[in-house]
Design brief:
By secondary structure, this protein is α+β, with helices and mostly antiparallel strands. The protein is built from 16 helices and 18 strands.
Length: 473
Amino acid sequence: MVAECITEDFEFQPLGRREVTGRFDGGTITSDAGALLLRELEAKTGLLRRFAECFNDYRDPELIEHTVEELIKQRVFGIALGYEDLNDHDDLRHDPLLAVLVGKRDPTGENRVRQRDKGKALAGKSTRNRLELTPVGASASSRYKKIVAECSTIEQFFVEEFLNSYDEPPEEIILDFDPTDDQIHGSQLGRFYQGYYKHYCYLPMYVFCGQYLLCAKLRPSDGDGCAGTVPDLQRIVPQIRERWPNVRIVLRGDSGFCREPIMQWCEKNRVEFILGLSKNTRLKAEIVEEMVQAKGTFEETGEAARVFKDFTYRTLKSWSRSRRVVGKAEYIGKENPRFIVTSLSPETIAAGPLYEKVYCARGEMENRIKEQQLCLFADRTSCETMRANQLRLWLSSLAYVMMQKLREVGLKETELEPARCDTIRLKVLKIGAQVRVTFRKVWVALAESYPWRTLFAQIWANVCRMPPRPIPD
């Protein structure tokens, strides 16, 4: 309930002889006017519209005020703008600028059917909840929740968007697989204690290629960190090869993915791999001479020294064949040995560059995962069921794809091209503006004191130059 006194003056500390007074009478003001750039980007790419097609809507068309596409846009734009909770939308539904972003023809909500909804153009938390909580078996006969997400179609969607990001097929792509922890605090389905992370959590699996996200799959944390890798490869690789039959695909992961079924599947399906390999006494014995050499260099120079060795190795029981292993004998005041196993031949790439330039580059994927969790709320998995939490993870992933597209297109050759999502939000999307809605126009008067006007104009020009994506028949 809004307090009656909010129209009174607020007397702040004076500025010299001047009084400093505040009052809620500035008209319809938004703090998110920069998100108009996201609206233009969506109009060019159709990203959110295509994601909405991954749902079956069993609601009565004559009773619908908010389409699935509008609900998706409202949620994803909200996440991109920093509104992590569904509860936020009970207040955001009053914002005409967000209604413009969503595509509401009545951005002030004055023409809503119910009297209680007038002045609120967008859906509230209850309507939004029905989207996220609809069970898999819902149908037209269900009472409330009738919008069913087609999970397999959504998984294909993210791979398809990755493929659409390239104008020409690349010669090689590297698929990074990595799990992460998603700490939970309630009694959600799939809740288990994870000994490595030392708390109750989910263990979602991510697949990235560079900055492009191909998979975000929610999993319970009571299994192996690499569980589900082969099924994901069986789904992703054929979809990629259907579009790019000649591309070389490389799987990259840490030692948690060094499992015989994964390597064997790759070898049978023309997929190369570069995987971490846990050290043991046999492996360390292979690089004794190299470690002595590295120690001698360290004692001479006082700086960390590395020596690499290429050799063939096979476990006593778990591996079905011998494979190429690269050992890193590093001395940093103490011994620091590391190993990787790969299907790439020494003629393709030497041991040193393979480890330092290719394998170590997988650390960038961890930055992308942290970006999604910290900036786009991928860890807001507080629903009771795993299906609902999986949908929340996908909506966060969709916001990441949208922000990545803004980075790739709008921020190209600008100072913010390498920036993180929260920095982009602060400097580009969070712009104060007055919004006036008339019969013919929506006037958005951006703040004159906005300090990055030149940058905004360059982003706008970059988005305008982007050719629109053809709409399929």
